Amino acid sequence: MTEQPVWRPVSRNEWLAVLGCSVAASLAAIAWSWQNHALLNYGDAVAHLHIARRVIDSHRPGLSQLGSVWLPLPHLLMIPFVTIYAWWANGIAGLIPSALSYIAGCAGIYRLARNWLRPVAAAAALTFFALNANLLYLQTTAMTEPLFLCEMIWLAVWLVEWRTSLNKDPQRADRLLWCIAIVLVAAVFTRYDGWILALLAWSSIGITQLRHGTLRCRAFWLAGALVVAAPVVWFVYNSVVFGDWLDFVRGPYSATAIEMRTASPGGPPHPGWHNPWVSFLFFIKAAEMDAAAEGWGNTLLILALLGTAWAWLTTRRRAFLWTLLLWLPIPFYAYSVAFGSVPIFLPVWWPHSFYNTRYGMELLPALALGLAFAAHFFIAAVRDFKPRWAPFGETLIYVSIALNAWTVLRARPLTYVEGTKNIEARLPFEQQIPPVLRSLLASRPGGIVLMNTSVYPQIVALTGIPLRQTVNSSDREFYSAALTAPSSHASVVLAFAGDEIDQAVHAHPSGLRAVQRFNAPDLPAATVYVSDTLASTNNQAVVASGKGMP
Question: If DSSP codes are grouped into helix, strand and coil, which group holds residue 9?
Fold first, then answer.
């Protein structure tokens, strides 16, 4: 009854249109975010920039500064840009990789859809994906979601093209194996979701090669070695630098450790704790709220699922099968929220708060592709039964997508609201403390500041000093030595009530003088001390020579 999807090569004009529209949308979102001072709303975005900066700006710069929990690729991509101090301080250094990932992701979702669909339906997938307000905001920040979405999409693109080329063009199939391996390595070093993605994708490739009698293919084994090496490198890095190959799982900064420190006594730490079904519902709801206007989430999900099912029945199934990896976030987060200490809080469900709402964004490519097939089915049906109405049917689809995007934007995207609440909590300290530090350091040129930059890293950038002018927890032995005698290792000490530095100050108060205390709602108070023991003129010399330090 309906017209079957037919593949056509993507023309040069199509590519120009896709890239032009994607760049325009990205620039518009950047301009808005810059004007509203929203690039650094997320505390995680500030922390990502901080990690990238300390690789090149610390007492011992190097890859060991990448830390043990967050995977390193996003930070490595930022390093060329954080070398410019102003870009580190204002967030542009994180914006650039994210915006480029967004543009590449837009191109990828269109190319993926065009494997089966004509431009009108493929453009529906692109429009839905590119105009998502949550994605447009995140691509102006240093968050990892735009990069990982880009990797997921291009993995699906190259898997589909590899499967199509396997019988027709073995040489191209071998080349695509290397593309797949590279994007899997990138995914492994971006988010832990990528580890499961890599395992499933490469195992499935091996099974397919075995069935075709091409398992001895040299490219498969060499590229496979590259994929396997990626997590092994991370294990080795954690073992060498932190003394525990699973430090990212069970170390003091792991998700499990943070959950244990922050959980309220009595009752479950969060909704979905040890309950995969509730975790599944929270993730699905987050995905719906990230992608659709209020009240239309279930409709959107049903249409995407119906479109995916219809595509499975009418397309080249063996190639389309690989796109089902785009739905992997559902079981991954159902498990992770339940057993992996990564809660999701939504304003519509208890505890009626905002936390990790961006996780739902990972289902956006699957929803976009499913909707594109649903749109194709609708257009084909209209052409069959009411040919004259076909142009109106196409217009209706784009109007609906644009209306949905506008409604999500007008209601304020979840990710933006969460980020705004995040910065509202930090803002009092970020506004009050840097001027005081600048004033104190003006009379102590080159004076070292002892502070915990993992909690409020932006204070350093706003003060205008390099990270190497601080002693913080990433400095390890320098930091440990400073905690035993704060007044002998720093001209200025910034302590937050209850943290390690605050405990050290109370244990070793000699030579320290409190100059100002800062308070903010629902946050531990901060106190600035100056050292009467350490002369400002020889402070740098002490650090440089290592006196009093291991």
Answer: coil
